[in-house]
Specification:
By secondary structure, the protein is an all-beta fold. It contains no helices and 25 strands.
Length: 296
């Protein structure tokens, strides 16, 4: 969601002149509204775009980001109108910097100073300046197989969630996971705190698309709860929640138990909140306790 609106795109294949090559960006103004095509573009040539899309700013004045290989394609939003495509060439030491072999599936974290982190298949997240010149890498804590990356301030802690289609102990593509890391000393000095699921998704399904997605939120219980949703293509969606107690000047002091007093919240297996769950299996979050329940 972006300012309460929902945005998505198709996956436009290369070349852009092909029938499936037109990139379309859609917006839903509410959960129940019909989609509106806010941009239709077939000028991206040989680039395949849309495996991932990232938005920065807001729906009135912001930017929509895509990437394949060493080329970032972006669309500025000005007064609610999506402009024409522009590009940034990613480089390191004067040579093209390729963000992984899987076309169109680059994740971004956009910083307020114009710099940005970018992450693709078989690359650690890397920081670039606004002109696309490499600055530094994230510490390698997911075996070099990262392809989704989020930064979050949680109380006084600075954390990163870094997804991999294959965790350190995996020998196949069937064990995707994400690492929660402490980045208080900088992303280039990140230290792993835990891997979720610890042994990866235990499934026979191989993630042959090398596709993972992370969503991170801290908007529950006055910012005391860190929620992470992790999706591995063909394997499932994991929901993880950490409840930290704030004290003093919003410092996180400890994990606390409030299973009895806290109101229960329910989510479906796709990670969407459900107000009145009935007829199925739901994830129940109450305080720092997360369980699965069948509700008739």
């Amino acid at each position: 969601a972006f300012d309460g609106k929902i945005y998505a795109s198709n996956r436009a294949t290369a070349p852009s002149s092909a029938a499936s090559g037109t990139l379309k960006i859609y917006r839903w103004d509410s959960d129940t509204s019909a989609p509106t095509v806010i941009k239709e573009d077939a000028t991206h040539g040989s680039l395949a775009l849309g495996g991932k899309m990232v938005l920065s700013g807001n729906s009135s004045n912001g930017r929509i980001w895509f990437c394949q290989g060493s080329t970032v394609v972006y669309y500025d939003i000005t007064n609610g109108t999506v402009g024409d495509a522009k590009t940034i060439a990613l480089t390191k030491d004067g040579s093209a910097y390729n963000l992984g072999a899987n076309a169109g599936e680059t994740d971004f974290v956009i910083n307020s100073d114009g710099t940005f982190w970018a992450d693709g298949k078989d690359k650690v997240p890397a920081l670039f300046n606004a002109s696309g010149v490499w600055q530094k890498d994230c510490a390698s804590i997911v075996n070099g197989n990262a392809n989704s990356f989020k930064l979050v301030d949680f109380g006084t802690r600075k954390l990163a969630a870094i997804a991999t289609y294959m965790n350190k102990s995996a020998t196949t593509l069937a064990d995707g996971a994400f690492v929660l890391a402490d980045v208080a000393n900088g992303v280039d000095a990140a230290t792993a705190m835990a891997t979720y699921p610890e042994t990866g998704f235990v499934t026979a399904t191989r993630n042959t698309q090398f596709m993972t997605t992370l969503c991170v939120a801290t908007d529950r219980e006055n910012g005391m709860v860190l929620d992470v949703w992790y999706c591995a293509d063909g394997q499932g969606i994991g929901f993880y929640s950490y409840n930290g107690k704030k004290g003093g000047s919003s410092a996180i002091e400890d994990i606390f138990s409030e299973e009895v007093e806290a109101p229960a919240e329910y989510y479906n297996l796709q990670g969407m909140k459900v107000a009145n769950p009935t007829g199925g299996i739901f994830i129940k979050v109450q305080g720092n306790k997360v369980t699965k329940e069948y509700i008739k």
